[in-house]
Amino acid sequence: MIAALTFGRVRRGAKGQVERGIAFASRSNLPLSAVCLVANGVREQFARMLGRELETEVLDPVIVGELPSTALFSDAIVQRVSGRLCDVLIAVRRNDALSLVGAAFHETERSSAQLSLIERATLDRLLAALPPLCVPLCGPVGAARAEEAGRAISEAVTYFEVRFIGALRATIAFALTADPQEDVVAGLALDDLLDLELECAVECARGAIGLTALGALTVGTTWLLETRLGAWGTLLVERIPFTRGTCGARGDRAAFIVDRPAAAAA
Prior knowledge:
This protein is α+β, with helices and mostly antiparallel strands. It contains seven helices and twelve strands.
């Protein structure tokens, strides 16, 4: 089992300092590549809609059972995205919603903690860009609908966050109703590779050439290589040096004689 270090929400310490609690949680089987695809999609879509450059970072996907799940969704606006493999719960907590709406209206400070009707409509439009981004998480997606925080708390299994960093500070949370199954495949045996064909080539001479001289090469130009006649050649397998030997000919075809075992090639 792989554990990931997680950080709780920001809180004020006894002396007014900003603190985050830490804990270890079981790492989800959700591939980080899928998480990064979602994070990049969020960054690109919101940058286009907000008309500003944005940067994001991700919180590694973890199993919700070992986290204080009530803190993840209790004051959040949650929507459920139906997918072929599982459902995805997208949550935006109240302070994050205020930050996103503030960015849309170029506001740095707010006099009210409540969203107006036009601000809520703006937030809904931003959130409407998120369901299509969930394909790497749950396969083809269907309809998205509002979800109750309590039900999200009870059904969330895998959790990660996409966080905006820089001038805009906001977090969008994603939770899956099922953790992906870990793929366990049998190891390859030599018999599985017997019919595999590999491209081979022989390098019989080497040299270096400057960029100016390279650009001046024409038909008939003589270029002296550093390798002397009779020096060993190198057998390349899929462009990787494999072994050394002697270059020659057999009949009317080029040939290569292996002079040393492949393990001794350098």
